Amino acid sequence: MCNNWEKQCCPKHHIEGEIDLKTGNRKIVSLTIVVAVLTIFVLGVSSIYIKYLNQHYRVEVENGYVEELKNDDRVSKIYLDEDGNVVGTYRIPAIKDNKVAGVFLSFDASFDIEDSIIITREEINAETNRTIFRFKMMVAVFLGVYAITIIIIFIMQRKNDIKMEQIAYVDEITGGKSFEKFKLEADKLIKETDNNYVLVDLDIDKFKYINDIFGYEEGNVVIRFIWKLIDDMIEEEETFAHHRADQFVLLLKLDDMDRVIERIEKLADDANKKKNIYEKNYEIDLSIGIYPIDKRYYQIDTAIGRARLTKKSIKGQHSKIYAIYDEELRQKVLQDQEVENLMEKSLENQEFKVYYQPKFASDTCEPVGAEALVRWYNDEIGMIYPSEFIHVFESNGFIADLDKYMFEHVCMDIRKWLDEGCTVVPVSVNLSQQQLYNKRFIEEYKEILNKYDISAEYVQLELTETTLFSEANILDEIIDELHSIGFKILMDDFGTGYSSLNMLKNVDVDILKLDKSFVDDIGDPKGDIIVSTIVSLGQLFNMKIVAEGVETKEQYEFLRDIFCDEIQGYYFSKPISSEEYREKMVKIQ
Ligand code: C2E
Ligand code: CA
Ligand code: CA
Questions:
Q1: What is the DSSP string of 202-255?
Q2: From the CA of 120, how far away is ligand 3's center (Å)?
């Protein structure tokens, strides 16, 4: 679902970015630690050393003799022999006003004082001062290096921060704001202005397929196109951003809801014009959830969550572009989530059952076929009808799994009936639009036919008119391949799409299923004309016509009289379980 799409939008860049940042951070941290340890060490050593220097005079003399004298020794002169041995010291116990206050001399009697080298206290002091100066210079140089290192670290850190900021605040695909930045801005606008706002969450229907079929770059082109459209419509004190995959979030001012809807509808309309911009001909339909923000109990994440929930409620419904949040809708979405939570386990547990609705020849009233319709029986909930779950499965893609499951179970039933020696009439199974994007679907269906050793003439495939229309560019090849296997293709819900007559011309189908809405109009003079015209037109194109949802005798007789080929509807039979179907409809040879 959404999380997969997310992956499909250039995931690599994000990951690489993160790794770079982490390595960068690690380098800076280790460098800082090393510099900090060195600094502590140098400062420690230097303070100890300076203290030491204050206490001791290190006296270096020409002949290399080194003597250490303490401060309080009050030495002013030292007498050394040629080998550097101390032969005497001239001590001044106290010096007052530069005058010697007391003198004490000690000499080695054998030593000639003229041969000695004398170091004065001034020289000692000068030497000490030089040493301290050299040392201070050394510390200064080190501190200079240290300061430069700190500046470099600071610059690196800043660069890192900017990079982080870019990743956090700039959207990679569009170059616009990131989702995080949007949240900050939206929060500020909501809290700091007097405007009322709606939070709008929108995404592109079937975006996954644009990526799958045309590639990620095409997907990104579409995202940038939508981004630009929103950017053009956004006003002052509003904000928006591309979120992950094909999702966008918008904060629009709410002066009056009609104006919001007008703007949203224009956006959806402009988005659809996309198909004229590029050669590839596909639709860009938007699903949009609108949540009017109540400032009193507001949190940005909750607002986004509710707008998203609202959007989910219309996912897969082609007739609806947008929905506005209300409590009823919240309940419905929660119910859909429950369905979503149960679906996979239910498929494993074989809770989905095939029901068969027979089709009858209009002239002889003999059963000539059946449609397989799914029913979901859950032990706790009981029977669940397609209207409660098909839209959920269509929006999350699970419908393709269900279709395959139904196809397999129909084949299984047919195999059983054939083995029991029954006369089996073709059963049509529904094929959802999503199945067409599964590149292996034809292969998989063929494998199932082989597994049960069923000829394709027993199983027909129903594709809705809308599916056939939306997928025109990939359809010819698929239909040719299905025909070559021996499948017959039905155009389901004929008459409900945008361009029904063109469909007759362009799509190579074998059987037309006239939608119930036309059958309902039988009895009305104009309705009668439309139905009989469609039936004749279809037959002129060499198609068989099946009328769906036939409920009354009048409808049946009218259809029979205009030579509609087959009748499916409650008038003859509701969908029934496979056991009942086996009993009633499949004659023993
Ligand atoms: P559909 O393919 O157009 O199926 C015909 C629907 O009309 C069925 O509803 C059927 O029970 C109902 N119907 C048939 N005759 C009459 C009648 O005389 N009067 C009235 N009022 N209704 C009639 P159902 O079984 O509830 O299925 C609804 C839709 O769910 C189907 O419409 C189809 O689009 C979808 N569906 C059902 N099973 C599957 C499946 O296995 N795969 C897929 N992809 N879709 C399925
Ligand atoms: Ca159908
Ligand atoms: Ca139908």
A1: EEETTHHHHHHHH-HHHHHHHHHHHHHHHHHH--TT-EEEE-STT-EEEEEE-S
A2: 117
Q: Match 């594709």 to its residue by tokens.
A: 463
Helix (H, G, I), strand (E, B) or coil at 285: coil
Which of 13, 11, 31 shows the shortest CA–CA distance to 21? 13
pLDDT digits (tens, 9 = 90+) for 337-382: 899 999 999 999 999 999 999 999 999 999 999 999 999 999 888 9
CB 366 within 8 Å of CB 566: no
- Residue 292, classified by CB atoms within 10 Å of its CB into exposed (0-12), middle (13-18) or buried (19+), is middle
Q: Cα separations (Å) of 137 from 128, 134, 148?
A: 14, 5, 16
pLDDT, tens only, 160-193: 777 777 667 889 899 999 999 999 999 999 999 9
Counting ligand 1 atoms within 8 A of each CB, the residue from 430, 493, 515, 552 with the most, and so the one to mutate, is 430
540 vs 182, 359, 510, 535, 543, CA distance in Å?
57, 22, 12, 9, 7
* Bridge partner residues of 68 (DSSP): 58
SS3 60: strand
Q: Indicate the pLDDT class of residue 404, thresholds 50, 70 and 90.
A: very high
Average confidence score pLDDT of the chain: 82
Closest atom, ligand 1, to C-alpha of 394: 44
pLDDT at 385: 93
Q: Which ligand is nearest to the CA of 392?
A: 1
pLDDT score of 28 more than 80: no
**Distance of CA 537 from the midpoint of ligand 2 (Å):** 21
The CA–CA distances, whole Å, from 433 to 239, 311, 461 equal 35, 20, 12
d(CA 13, CA 389): 37
Listed residue (425, 424, 465, 431) closest to 445, CA to CA:
431
DSSP readout, 526-569? Answer: HHHHHHHHHHHHHHHTT-EEEE----SHHHHHHHHHTT--EE-S
Q: Which residues contact 499 (CB under 8 A, 6 or more apart)?
A: 469
How far apart CA 358 and CA 367 sit, in angstroms, is 6
